UniProtKB/TrEMBL annotation:
Pfam families: CRISPR_Cse2
Protein name: CRISPR-associated protein, Cse2 family
Domain of life: Bacteria
InterPro entries xref list: CRISPR-assoc_prot_Cse2, Cse2_sf
UniProt organism field: Rhodospirillum rubrum (strain ATCC 11170 / ATH 1.1.1 / DSM 467 / LMG 4362 / NCIMB 8255 / S1)
Amino acid sequence: MNRASPLNETFSEWWEKSIDKDDGQAKADRAALCRLGVADQVFPPAIDVAGALTIGAFRTLYRQINQREILKDFRTGDWEDRLAVAAMVLAQVRTNTPSHTTAALLGGDDDTPLMAESRFRRLLRAKDPVDLWAQARRAVALLKREAPVGDLGASLFTWDAHTRRRWAGAYWRLQAPAEDQSAPSAAVLSPTPLSTLGAP
């Protein structure tokens, strides 16, 4: 099971109930999250987590992440900044495309990726939340605001070496299909015992 599966579900459900709803509160919260960015008068630059906490939709997501025991291992380091990044970027998404991963969509279906390799490498090099936010916003814009919100939210929240490796494999289509009938089985790869071949 993908280690981020509970996170995928959490971000998907939050986006559907708090961001994608066609009511006044959801529209106001979505607009407020889209306007957020770097905190004022802070050096080095930092994500405006305090501003995010003034938005009802973000507080809902914060509680969901903070109260679920299964997600406790993800609440480490600058997790509040990364959570704000995920919420701010997901607020930019207009259509959920759950059948694909974000990195696979950026890699495209042919030899011409949707996101240029140089820009994708720049995204993979993003380490601090401010840089990640800027690069992820560009990615969503390239996707015309259509993205798998569960995968995208979980990835931004857990943006570590494991996640970056997974994105690289999906972008360059290096990951094997779930059921690859062309791959040799373990039985084929195992050497045939000499005893079954008869004496020379």
